[in-house]
Amino acid sequence: MRKFFATAFLFCAGLACGQAGNTVQRYQDEVFKTVEVTRDIPYGEAVNLGTGKKEILLLDLYQPKGDAELRRPVVIWIHGGGFRGVKDKSNSFFVTLAERFAKRGYVTASIEYRLYGSITPDAIRQAYEDAKAAVRWFRANAKTFRIDTTRIAVGGKSAGGITSLFATYAEPEGNSGSPGHSSAVSACIEMAGMMAVSEMEPGEPPVLIIHGTDDKSVPYASAGAIKNRAEQVGIPYDFRPVPGGDHDLSDHMEELVQWSSDFLYKYVIQGAPAHVDERAELQPNAFQLLQNYPNPFSASHALALGRAPSTKIRYTVATAGEVSLQVFNALGQEIQTLARGPHEPGAYTREFVASGLPAGLYFFRLQAGNAVFLRKMILAK
Asked: Which of 48, 142, 184, 340 is deepest in the core (most CB within 10 A)?
């Protein structure tokens, strides 16, 4: 398990130390006084499903000024607005969050995304596809901005909370930018959001749920549904109701910052983000077979939820040609063929559904021309 060193004396060496008896700590305290802001960086482009026109997608980047850290975690903030109106990455609420967390030592961004004009499935889909593209953009530019690609979180409020949830838990990637890089995140901060909670599955990233109990736009019960689903499938979560809080939440900024800071420190900085490690970077110009996710995957847990145990397998193809992906048991007997036939270059995902199979060790093999890759996986009881 890999953890960031977070003791005070390490940060005193190069970053932050208060007066005697007043030690401050990176990621928990505002150890930087100023922030460098780079505005309107293109991170992708896509056709708006509402207008039929291609849009350039922009983000504002916030970095702690004078930072010497070589691998820095990222928080991507996503504005609200009901998926309509104007792109609002300069909204003061999210500028404040971006600045406050950059001062804590994170690289942060406030992103825009395609707007639709109304709240529809297409509106939500194109928004979270753009958010996933922003995650991939940071991985594609990790060397330039000194990013720790295993520690990227997303967060948002209202429509941004909805977008953050779907970007974390929904499967479709979209094609808004930086193909071939993973869009997996380490954690999700959702404020006044909601989603189809069936998207949340065992082994997925932790979530911070913040919701005003007097929210008239997105019912407070939506937060309870997310909390209950997280408990049901074993996703770590922090639940922070705001007594008497409405949908806006602006009057509770200090609480939001503290809750988010504690959550990120616990799950992104101190925690080992295994779900990101297991969804390692896809190399678009290489044949590659990644470890299945989740692994192990549980038969009893899946059956308790009324479904068959399953896991996802990801691979990349460098050149066009015949490709096969097969699953074998411990005796070498073929159990299932997940893919067979011509493939174009690119990244692929296949789901292995282990219906009726006994717990134990299994193998999956990718063959592409003369290249053969083999990995093992475990179906737990």
From this structure: 184
Distance, in Å, from the CA atom of 59 to the CA atom of 42, rounded to the nearest integer, reads 6
Strand partners, 362: 329, 377
| Domain 8-277 = CATH 1.10.760.10 | no
Residue pLDDT, tens place only, 260-300: 999 999 999 987 555 554 344 555 567 888 888 777 787 76
Nearest to 106 by CA among 142, 39, 137, 152: 152
Q: What is the DSSP letter of 282?
A: P
Contacts from 58-61 at CB under 8 Å and sequence distance 24+? 58/87, 58/89, 58/111, 58/112, 59/89, 59/109, 59/110, 59/111, 59/112, 59/134, 59/137, 60/89, 60/90, 60/95, 60/98, 60/109, 60/110, 60/111, 61/37, 61/107, 61/108, 61/109, 61/145
pLDDT tens digits, 96-129: 999 999 999 999 999 999 999 888 999 999 999 9
Per domain, the residue ranges of the chain are 8-277, 288-380
